Amino acid sequence: MPEITSIPFNDNYRRIATEEAWASPELLQMYADLYNSGKIDDPGFDSLWGFYGTSNANRPATVRRRLADLDEERLADMDAAGIDFAVLALTSPGVQVFDRDTAISVAKDTNDIVKAAVDRHPDRYAALCAIAPQAPELAAQELERCKSLGFKGIINNSHTHGEYLSDPKFWPIFEAAEAMDMPIYLHPNTPPRNMIEPMLEAGLDGAVFGFGVETGLHMLRIITAGVFDRFPKLQIIIGHMGESLPYWMYRLDFMHNAQVSSNRYEALKPLKKKVSDYMKENVYITCSGMAWEPAVRFAQQTIGVDRVMYAMDYPYQYVLQEVTDMDNMDISDAEKKMFYEKVATSVFKL
Ligand code: 1DF
Ligand code: MN
């Protein structure tokens, strides 16, 4: 088959891409400097940004250029792929790799930069705001500011220095997100140092596998810690077809119940609902990096067509063929419109 070079916009649905990464040139420089300083004790960051931040091979150099462009090149790439609209999020690990004060100020600065891009192209972009989990007590403040600037949700790039949002010290973030009706995109980060070693030695720590394992675990920890019992209206979005969790739902329900009822772990407490119920009521899934019909339809069957939506994961997976593949899925026209457009407009209030 010839390679596709251009896909027209679709008359029946707008294609909204919901996990689209960006980074300012300054942030890219900070990542390169942090890596080069050797001062960071984080093999996952070194693996990821040692590569994307410093290598001049074609993929990392192209990724860097595309991440930093919020105007001509990105819009031309969206046009060529028939993507009407992109929800922009600060690339992983966002501000979460920095110390507390740096994270607070970089979050604010990058939010202002992406807000300006949304203002330049309001018919093409919306944005998620970065917050510093290192300062959970300030989350409500920055979120309030971002909501008033028109941001549509929060980007959180999984763990922060090896800590998970299931820890109650981070729950002011959930409280603010629920109160302000802002969904949280729980995007991957490279695994923390106490998880990464057997992945890294095999070259499997990155997006190929490690990202999904770590982020799936993070989502599951949030569910089992009782976050949705405490914040029942909170909505969390995960990419990559649900970071494997839909496929695990049956077993998660059975084994979670078995462990809880035998008091095996202090940390595993009874929940108001089954693990799978939270997946159906508090979790949205995108197909970022997983434009694969069997997986999309499995997720639609297990968590619902009203909870599965399109994402491209530009610039990490800019593959036009995937748009054609998603267009050609054997689902009804109404379901296709849900997938590409309506789930996104609903959860992000676009
Ligand atoms: C990669 C993939 C990097 C995804 C990402 O952010 C990322 C990659 C640094 O290919 O290394 O967001 N992704 O979501 O699949
Ligand atoms: Mn991504």
Can you summarize this structure?
With 350 residues, the chain is of the alpha/beta class. The protein has helices at 25-37, 43-52, 58-68, 72-81, 100-120, 139-148, 171-179, 193-200, 210-224, 227-230, 240-243, 245-261, 275-282, 293-303, 320-327, 333-348, and strands spanning 16-22, 85-90, 125-127, 129-130, 154-157, 184-187, 236-238, 283-286, 308-309.
Walk me through what this model shows.
There is one protein chain. The chain has a single domain, classed as Metal-dependent hydrolases (TIM Barrel), CATH 3.20.20.140. The chain has 16 helices and nine strands. It has helices spanning 25-37, 43-52, 58-68, 72-81, 100-120, 139-148, 171-179, 193-200, 210-224, 227-230, 240-243, 245-261, 275-282, 293-303, 320-327, 333-348; strands at 16-22, 85-90, 125-127, 129-130, 154-157, 184-187, 236-238, 283-286, 308-309. α5 (100-120) links the parallel β2 (85-90) and β3. α1 packs across α2. It is globular. It starts with 15 loop residues before the first strand and ends with a helix. 46% of the residues are buried.
Number of helices: 16
CATH architecture: Alpha-Beta Barrel
**How much β-strand is present in the residues?**
5-15%
Q: What structural category arises from helix and sheet content?
A: alpha/beta
The spatial strand order of the largest sheet comes to 4-5-6-7-8-9
What is the ordering of alpha helices and beta strands?
EHHHHEHEEHEHEHHHEHHHEHEHH
Ions, cofactors, ligands: which are bound? Answer: 4-hydroxy-3-methoxy-5-nitrobenzoic acid, manganese (II) ion
Major sheet attributes: 6 strands, parallel
Poorly predicted regions? none
Helix percent band: 40-55%
CATH class: Alpha Beta
Shape: globular
Number of strands: 9
How many separate structural domains? 1
